[in-house]
Amino acid sequence: MSENPQPVLRPVLRIEHLRVLHRDGGAPLVDGVSLDLAPGETLGLVGESGSGKSLTLRAVLGILPAALRAEGTVERAGARAAMVFQEPAIALNPTMRVGHLVARTWRLHHPGATRGQARDEAAALLERVGIPRARARLAAWPHELSGGMRQRVMIAAALATDPGVLLCDEPTTALDVRVQAQILDLLRDLVASRDMAMVFVSHDLAVVGSLCERIAVMRSGQIVEEGRTAAVLRAPGHPYTRELLAANLARRLADAATKGARP
Ligand SMILES: Nc1ncnc2c1ncn2[C@@H]1O[C@H](COP(=O)(O)OP(=O)(O)OP(=O)(O)O)[C@@H](O)[C@H]1O
């Protein structure tokens, strides 16, 4: 029988035995998380509120709150990581025009470039993330844009760093369902066209199911189950994953019933 081994790709992100702890002691908030991400791979990180998903992403990026510290290994193999946060209204600087934010971020990563080049790149990036009349919007303030457009600006700013890994922390939770779907389409398209890996934190298993090849389920700071998304959702091995699935299904059914009951 002939063997047909998969090429071994060097991971763009390797997390080993990551722990996040309070500086003044107590139980770890993230407790021994290990994950590998190949170039272009998509991983959904799910689990109930407080299970340690956001802190895992923040530890990868080195932006933990001052009261916390990380232990363990995070290797990025030269790939940059950029983060898209849940609430673009908070993450965006309200006193900076959106074009300036994107141009400035791009210029930080292209030191020899001129202001004019940075402006052109910013317009191209805003256009890439689906902002109509991008050049005219360079001068817009964040408050002049809708929530969905603001999240597109955040994604453009993340892309300006030319990341190998995009870390998304519930990037669509604050948006209405229609806009959510548009942003998910955009992320799907970006990951496919840029060979960018992505970690996508979400409560919503259906969203992860539609977006991510792999899934890791977190509970109390630990990964309790990990695998191909389709396999895990079809036949969850851990009781907690089954609970999460049941809770997700119940919520979806309740939402559908509420919508159906509207006059
Ligand atoms: N700055 C902080 N100081 C102390 N504890 C914190 C801090 N930030 C988060 N925590 C605690 O760490 C734990 C994990 O938080 P984290 O935000 O990673 O959870 P999460 O899984 O992302 O939850 P959610 O889905 O609600 O965003 C929680 O118990 C939280 O209360």
UniProtKB/TrEMBL annotation:
Coiled coil: none annotated. Keywords: ATP-binding, Cell membrane, Membrane, Nucleotide-binding, Transport. Pfam families: ABC_tran (PF00005). The gene is oppD_2. CDD domains: ABC_NikE_OppD_transporters (cd03257). It is found in: Cell membrane. This is Oligopeptide transport ATP-binding protein OppD. Belongs to the ABC transporter superfamily. SUPFAM superfamilies: P-loop containing nucleoside triphosphate hydrolases.
